[in-house]
Amino acid sequence: MFRRKCDRRDWLKTATVGGVAVLAARWDLSAARATEVDDRFPRLADAALGRARSLGATFADFRIMQTETESLFVREQMVQGVSAATSLGCAVRVVCDGAWGFAASEDLSEEGVARLAAEAILIARAQAGWRKRRVEIEPLPKHVGRFDQPAEIDPFAMPLEKKVETLLGITAAAQKSGANFCQASLEQVRERTWIANTFGSRIAQSRVRLQPGFAVTVTDAKTGRFATREGSVPPRAAGWEHVTSLPLAGDAARAVEEAREKLVAPSVEPGRKDLVIAPSNLWLTIHETVGHPTELDRALGDEANFAGTSFCTPDKLDQLRYASDIVSFRGERTEPGGVATTAFDDDGVPTAGREFFIVENGVFRSYQMALGQAGRIGREASNACGYAESFDAFPLQRMPNISLEPGRDPAVTKESLIADIDDGILVEGNGSWSIDQQRYNFQFTGQVFHRIKNGKLAGMLRDVAYQGNSVDFWNACDGLGGRPSRELYGALHCGKGQPQQAAPVSHGAVPARFRGINVLNTAEQAGGKTAGCEGCRGVVRRWA
Which residues constitute the domain of residue 317? Predict the structure, then answer.
């Protein structure tokens, strides 16, 4: 890792020369090591799995994972930091005596992976005296194949100076439009995984994802107030072409105008109001009120980190009216561009054909499940929701891409949803959020709020938050945009587990209308102390 802070001219004269050389050498070495792993993987898998079987494993899998990350940060016309990291290692996971065992190492020798298998067996057997229930693994079909996620332009091959110039171009556009402060960033990740198991599968995969972002701030020197507008920039499983397809400089200039309008906007009058929520805000509400509550491990009480367990217990399957009958949520890991998309999950389960409805026409139909979970609720098999953040992380049940299905009428737009509201608010962009320990009661803010009066937008508001509970909120939905209005957002870092793991997830959404939602004035709730600021939004960036 290296970090450097300098102005634009100094960066172009000095830092790019050394930085490009260092990063290029790092990524070249990673590629060479990946080629070596391709050649050695069959022998390493045989050594690990053979040792596990000989010691009594009823199931075992062997996984090698290589991760590359690069992050860039600029502020105004200064480069604040460039970070790069790589990791490569392997893990053996076993079921022995009805318990899981897991061990990981950076040692990729045949002797090393055999030792890992023995360590995993010891860990499994050590649990035999106190485990609550036996681990039962459903049989998996044998799969042999390779998946390389499409990317037109490898972002790791892009010159560092080009990336820096792109980010500085965003902040320059913001400053030209009158921003007092502005920042921009770029994060990119590549994962290469090799998976083998005792069912005979041998799988190799590679995935690339990235996300640019920015935030602008304007101030009022007379009052001391300020307003910030963050860009609603979605992450993608794609190459550098995703960055070039976005009008980032134009969006930054537009964000300055919106921040300036926020600065002088009137504070919202609290009460029950009709809302139209844009996909740029609704994706996070989907994530927190539908995605996490329908993770099976939370529902069973096996997981309680990052906002607890779940109100959505197994007795509610096929019974709970989760939403109004126009609302359906679909889980999958196959959508092009989705950051959770892959051909096989980290349990070795194929994703094609495992798409499923979490909520169908308002009724709760299915959980997200990883290997060994389905039988506990009478289902036959996983729906490919296993993921591990790194080589030394145990695969957990993690969120796939979860999306709100569009309305049936393709002609319905955000504008037509607004036209049917007498007094309400349009919410755009995600802000801060909170939710209780059963993923039931919540509160969300946003980036931009427009008052709706007599079916038309009537200026901006500030200090807005909406609250409710997950079931009542989604049952209050009475209008959905058609498929042409669908947008894909998401998070690169969704937190879960102990030790913590982060996972990428995308959420498709359309504009949606909700009736009679409770709206708070955040400045009044805070005793007026936050009237000039935007609250704490940083949590959304790292842990969604």
Answer: 271-542
Q: Are residues 185 and 116 in the same domain?
A: yes
Residue 246 in this model has a pLDDT that exceeds 90: yes
Number of folded domains that form the chain:
2
Tell me, yes or no, whether 309 and 161 share the same domain.
Answer: no
State whether residue 291 is helix, strand or coil: helix
DSSP letters for 358-412: EEETTEE---B--TTTGGGGT--S--S-EE-SSTTS--EE---EEEEPPPS-TT-
Lowest mean pLDDT among 281-290, 402-411, 532-541: 532-541
Q: Where does the pLDDT of residue 131 fall: very low under 50, low under 70, confident under 90, or very high at 90 and above?
A: confident
So what's the pLDDT on residue 467? 97
The one-character DSSP state at 326 is T
Short-list 350, 348, 378, 349, CA closest to 366: 378
User: Of 217, 240, 264, which residue constitutes the final position of a domain?
Assistant: 264
The region, left, alpha or beta by phi > 0 then psi within -120 to 50, assigned to residue 155 is: alpha
Domain boundary among 228, 247, 264: 264
Rounded to 10 degrees, the C-alpha dihedral 312/508/232/410 comes to: -130
Where b means 16+ CB within 10 Å and e means fewer, 438-459 reads bbbbbbbbbbbbbbbeeeeeee
Quick one: 281 and 212 in the same domain?
Answer: no
Sign of CA dihedral 61, 120, 189, 236: positive
Question: 334 and 424 share a domain?
Answer: yes
Residue with tokens 């802000």: 431
Is-contact 453 473, C-beta < 8 A? no
The answer as to whether 1 is a domain residue is: no
The pLDDT tens digits of the residues spanning 32-45 come to: 999 999 999 999 99
Q: What is the pLDDT of residues 139-149, one digit of tens each?
A: 999 999 999 99
Q: Are residues 237 and 356 in the same domain?
A: no
* pLDDT for residue 357: 98
**Does one domain contain both 67 and 116?**
yes
Task: State the pLDDT at residue 532.
Answer: 32
Domain CATH number, residue 46: 3.30.2290.10
